[in-house]
Amino acid sequence: MFRLIKSSLLVLFSAYCLVLAGAASAQAESKPAFISDALFVYLHSGPSNQYRIIGTVNAGQSVTFLSEDAETGYAQIQFEDNKTGWLPKEYVTYTPGLVSQLAQLKADYANHNENINQLEQQRDQLNSQLNKAVAERQTALEQLEQANRAYEQLKGQVEATQSSIWQKPMVLGSLILLAGLIFGLLLPLLMPKRRDSERWM
């Protein structure tokens, strides 16, 4: 009889130790989690729906997983400033729910739109600068063409003026007269010397 009681106490003590070890390991394995995509989930004060309801958590809400009860399939979570409660384990997930993903997608979409708007503004500025540079180049080409035409006109006028000067009879006659006058002034200065030299001979 004593052995039976002793063995029973030993079994109960071992079971109690296992329960304590399981609870300790479950508490040590606390990790971030999320509430799955349900509208809201009731929280109970203990690991079953027999315990009183102490509140609700919304779908996609960020919580901390603390432990679970394997018998009832309930998980203990921490939420909102260290409050704790129990809910069915199937409502706990370790990936963000659709609500959180949708919020993240909206934020990413807004950032992409902002980047696109900035790129479009930069593109418009570059197009404006390009159009301005093309207009300035076109103006420079037109000015160069006008300068070339003016140069050709001046060159033609100079050539026409030079050729017309020599073709005028009065100018040609004046030059011949001037040459004859110079020759007439120089010739008497040379002739007397010849006569003097002939006399001495």
Overview of the molecule:
The chain is of the alpha+beta class. It has helices at 2-28, 98-167, 169-200; strands spanning 31-35, 40-44, 53-58, 62-69, 74-79, 83-88, 92-93. A five-stranded antiparallel β-sheet has the order 6-5-4-1-7, with helices on one face. Strands 2-3 form a two-stranded antiparallel sheet. A hairpin with a 4-residue loop joins strand 4 and strand 5 (74-79). It is rod-shaped, with a radius of gyration of 57 Å.
Write a short abstract of this structure.
The protein is of the alpha+beta class.
How far apart are the termini?
Answer: 190 Å
Largest sheet: 5 strands, antiparallel
Determine Rg (CA atoms, Å).
57 Å
Topology order in helix (H) and strand (E) letters: HEEEEEEEHH
Compute the number of strand runs.
7
Helical residues, percent: 55-70%
Overall, the morphology is rod-shaped
Q: Which residues form runs of ≥5 with pLDDT under 50?
A: 23-28
Which structural class should the secondary elements be placed in?
alpha+beta
What is the mean pLDDT? Answer: 78
Strand line-up of the largest beta sheet: 6-5-4-1-7
